[in-house]
Write a structure and sequence with these properties.
mainly beta, outer membrane lipoprotein receptor (LolB), chain A, 14-stranded antiparallel sheet, 16 strands, 14% helix
Length: 265
């Protein structure tokens, strides 16, 4: 697993250099909008199995399996944790902008946040929801670059609203399909906090169209790490997505009652 994660990060992050210039404002905005749209499912529900593997240098790995349901048109999503056994039945629920965490041990719902880490990994709960590149950020700059084998538009985005996870982003998007290949999250001072790589996508058909969904995502925490054999290694989380479905789910899936019911099984 360590080799797989390292290979994914390296394959998406190497060979970075400018190959052309002259991107019009209209084209830059169009491609960025497409990248945002590709993270959302506004015409249908979405469900999939997620395997989330967390690797801490020198401490080994931990794995969480979850089922995620999304109804982006209503700003609703549900995450039900299936494994490991000690966490089975825990879950998250978003209704509008309110996020709840449910723990079956004490049968209580507590407030959570999009900035909160998912089960102690490097992933935020917001990583499982639509990304608001055009709604919450303005384009500071954009240039044509090479990212591995991909010709990309590389955007520098700065937040124009307060309630965002990160005040500055850099994202690499392939313009022909509007797919995000890499993202870097920055603090207000310009310190790089996280790096996300999306090496490949899978097509899933629904409502008469093809949706592009990541096969794997690799999230590296650029602040948390340690030296192993003289080399700096950072915490990484590999997210694998399978059994994706583009079809309407029962309304009950997006309720507290559903989490309570499923946790009892």
């Amino acid at each position: 697993m360590k080799k797989i994660i390292s290979t994914l990060i390296l394959s998406i992050a190497t060979c970075f250099f400018a190959f052309s210039a002259g991107i019009s404002d209209a084209e830059a905005k169009l491609v960025l909008q497409k990248a945002e749209d590709n993270t959302a499912f506004y015409r249908t529900d979405f469900a999939a199995s997620y395997e989330v593997v967390m690797e801490k240098p020198g401490e080994g790995r931990s794995k969480t399996n979850a089922t995620i349901y999304r109804r982006d048109s209503e700003k609703k999503w549900t995450i039900l944790i299936n494994a490991p056994l000690k966490d089975k039945g825990k879950g998250y629920l978003q209704v509008d902008s309110t996020i709840w965490f449910y723990d079956p041990a004490d049968k209580r719902f507590t407030f959570s946040s999009s900035k909160d880490k998912f089960q102690g990994t490097n992933a935020n709960t917001s990583d499982f929801a639509p990304q608001n590149f055009t709604k919450n950020y303005k384009i500071e700059s954009v240039e044509s670059v090479k990212l591995g084998s991909y010709n990309c538009f590389m955007y520098v985005l700065k937040a124009n609203v307060k309630n965002v996870d990160y005040p500055m982003l850099k994202i690499w998007v392939t313009p022909e399909d509007g797919l995000m290949r890499k993202k870097e999250d920055y603090s207000l001072s310009g310190q790089k906090l996280r790096t996300t790589a999306v090496p490949s996508y899978q097509k899933v058909n629904g409502n008469g169209r093809d949706y592009q969904i990541p096969v794997n995502m690799v999230i590296q925490d650029n602040l948390k790490g340690k030296k192993i054999n003289g080399k700096m290694e950072y915490e990484k989380t590999l997210i694998s997505i399978s059994n994706a479905s583009i079809s309407k789910q029962d309304d009950a899936v997006y309720t507290k009652s559903y989490l309570e019911l499923m946790s009892a099984k």
